[in-house]
Amino acid sequence: MVDTSIWSLALRRNVKNAPVDTLSGMIQDSLVVMIGPIRQVLLSGIADSEAYERLRSKLRFFDDLPITMQDYETAAQFFNTCRKNGVQGSHVDFLICAVAVNNSLIIYTADKDFQHYAQHLPIRLYGS
User: Fold this and answer.
1) pLDDT tens digit sequence for 17-31
2) Distance between CA atoms of 57 and 73, rounded to whole angstroms?
3) Which of 42, 65, 89, 109 is placed for a possible disulfide with 3 were both Cys, Cβ 3.0 to 4.6 Å?
4) Distances from the Cα of 97 to the Cαs of 66, 80, 93, in angstroms?
5) Which pTM value belongs to this model?
6) Distances (CA, A) of 37 to 3, 5, 28, 32, 67
7) How is residue 12 annotated by DSSP?
8) What is the spatial distance between Cα 29 and Cα 23, in angstroms, rounded to a whole number?
9) Where do the structural domains in the chain lie, given as residue ranges?
């Protein structure tokens, strides 16, 4: 599952770096998994309606993996576990972790918060 931090790097104009190259390879190999909350974050805050439509059109190439009741319950459990251990995070981050764990997915992210979560949660991070 590709986190918003990697997508954001890839969506910047004229950026060529290792994470973007890796994402391109994953897309070519059909290894990218999308969930609705990641799609929503990527599309939020785009003031230019034409830019919004271009990105929306590109992201529609990726179907959303359904999020289940179990995923939401697991996300809440992950939030509680991390909080108990002094680690703060967003509800979306914990939902990403839960969906990844419940679907045996690896999380591809540039967000260092996930390294903190990985100390307390059974998540797998790409490149770790």
Assistant:
1) 888 899 999 999 999
2) 31
3) 109
4) 14, 13, 6
5) 0.93
6) 10, 13, 23, 15, 10
7) S
8) 10
9) 4-59, 69-118
